[in-house]
Amino acid sequence: MTGLVIIGHTEKIWLVLIGLTFAGALLGETGHAGWPLTLTVFFLIAFKGGIVIDYYMEMRSANTRIRNILRMFVALISLLVIVSHGWGEVIRRLTTIN
Amino acid sequence: MGIWVGIFCVLVEFLLLFIVYFIARAHNPEAFLTGPDKLATLAGTVITLFLLTSGYCMVKAVNAIRCDEHKASLRWILGAILLGFGYPIVKYFEIRWNIANGIDGQAGIFYTVYYYLTLNHLVHVSWGLLGLIWIAVRTGLGGYSSQNHSGLEAAALYWHTTDIIWLAIFPFFYILR
Fold it and tell me: Taking a contact as any Cβ pair under 8 Å apart, which residues of chain A between 57 and 76 contact chain B?
């Protein structure tokens, strides 16, 4: 059938990433500081990072150790967003040089 | 496997830089609350779109070479390079716009960290682009096949790693308050 556009798995993954990017940009223009914004940013980093690792880098079927290191990196930086918002004062105290 | 050594070094480097970001944030909450307001969200968004679409092209390039479709693979790699070069071009105009609006490296701690992290990422993207140019030449000369394309895969993996790092940088400086 001519003219039929087939959207494959890779295209769907790309569309999800692009959609989440626009959602993030909208949030950047309209969002206010607070837990809802913090949790959304946590989700955006963790989810988009996970998609790139699993589908772009094909880590779902790769060496478990390498996949876990990549996932740990994304998990750590996204968790730091929550820690920084909820416990910023603790971070400040721990990193103050007297 | 050699590329993983390089990739893990890059991840450790950026993990340290992100820790610096969060420490600076904890010590200067006001600067990080208002900082993103003055940056051009559009520039960050366009860079993200370029990188994610360039990454998509590399996924297609790897899939094509696995089927011995050399010309298709080369076209996808060239597409990835073209989109990848969109990043430094947008960055150039973004920095010009920043400076015209008084946002230079001494405009405050938020912008110092912003310039340090984003320009460092740009350097890594530049290495990635050089790698992509190299594999484009190799693919054009028939250097890869369905049986032997580890070099192409290595360049794609490095390129996707720069994606992952940017996916954190973008919200850190343009969204999070």
Answer: 57, 66, 69-70, 73-74, 76
